[in-house]
Amino acid sequence: MKQLVFLLVLSFIFMSKIYAQNGGTVRGNFQTTMQTYKSDSLIGATDAPEFVLLNSYANILYTNANFTAGMRYEGYFNTLQGYDTKNDGFGFPYRFLQYSADNFDITVGNFYEQLGNGLVFRTYEDKNIGYDNAMDGIRVKFNPHQGIYFTGIVGTQRYAFSKTDIGYSQVQNQGLIRAFDIEFSPNDAIDSLNDAKTRISFGYSFVSKYQKEQSQFITVNDTTYSLLMPQNVTAMSGRMNLSTGAFAFSGEFAYKFNDPSAENNYIYKPGTATFVNISFAKSGLGILLSAKRIDNFGFRSNRTATLSDLNINYIPDISRNHVYAFSAFYPYANQNTGEMGISSEITFKLKKNSFFGGKYGTDIRLNYSRMQDINKQQIDPNIEINQKGTDGYISDFFAIGKDIFYQDANIQINKKISKGFKFTVIYQNLIFNYGILRGEPEMQTVYANVGILDMTIKLKTKHYLRIEAEALFSEQDMGNWAMLSAEYTVSPHWFFSATDQYNYKNPNNQEAHYYNAAFGYKINATRLQFSYGRQRAGVVCIGGVCRAVPATNGFMFSLTSCF
Question: Which of 254, 269, 271, 443 is least enclosed, having the fewest CB within 10 Å?
């Protein structure tokens, strides 16, 4: 089947050159990132046996009338440090055929999909964190009537490359996934409600994972018992979206039957997940309130998988996704085994030509988020919480655990002073439970304060200078940090930058400068960048999914282009 799909994809792309006059189009993009490595004992950087490592990929998409075909080539020669080395190699891990006509859509091969908020099913890719759990199978979408939408899915997930006698192919050692989703929108389905001020929709998702039973064992009082693993695990969710005027509400509740796995220490407790958003937006004022509760809701197509491997579902992260270096220094990582959290954000604009708004107005954003453990109680005084082979624990829905995972309170002000000068200033107060979120119990909880000033100056037409100053103050982990960065841009082609992050008052007396210099050139949809310097060890997270970043010292080259 895979070989047939791949040959058909190649045929479509080849024939596009011949039938371009009939409306067929080819488009795509590619990216290559290459880095050298040398050891640097001061920052803990190590060299690479290959000296140079490289990640690359290229997407090609062909469209003609109702048909779409695409594929992606990936080559890791070998994988950059910080990315999973099980991807070492090359191949075509993503290829598909899609046909859409009338109210019907079918995809054969690889695809990405999300049902609802993703609580029971979401597949996607993000190259920045090295994440890709694409489906390989069949997806059918059917819209029998306006406002009624069906989606059906069956297949397996991407895992890694495996070297064979004829090259590299995908590893298929995960379970089979089957999913169904229905969404109903009365406003679209019923003519009299088409123009109603209040809009509402409902959705229901059902996902089932099948994996052959694998023996798991537990030893009690020197006696070893074999645990029975369920071959079929089911999860389901219901959701609702409601909006009226300036207000909007969305909520989803999910339930998963017992799913013992490596992630939850093979307990048999069912899982639940709740996610709620409430927002208000009107006349320069925006308010967003979010809440979630996750209880034993990791869901993977292989029960032995850990880290970010083979996730069927996705737990939305409600903390703010920061973009500045020090505000994102301690990013939050979702805790699928149990967490509850709240988040609030208020954005407002001070009017132009007012006393506080000034000539151009002022934008202000206030944000607060807090993530905490759920309350877990013993099932029986003789059974430890999370003991392998048991129901794990008891947890009251509204009870809050004693451990604070994460707290982030921040304010951001964006201000334009003149046509040639604008700035952003940020203050952040942070609590970060290092022991739990990084899996290092011996580490202290980090309490930090962060200050950021970002200024952009227009020197002359198409010439801009951006200066960024940041500071992080903490008595835990690596101590205090200071950063100064300058970037000079000649729009639209050239940019040059220099950055120094200085770690001072380090508790381990390992103060160091993390310097970096870069320049790049952009023409149309092609961008080249060269850089050299040090990179500190840490973690990068996007949407609560994280990747460890090692300390490095070396040159980096990247090339991206679209066509």
Answer: 443
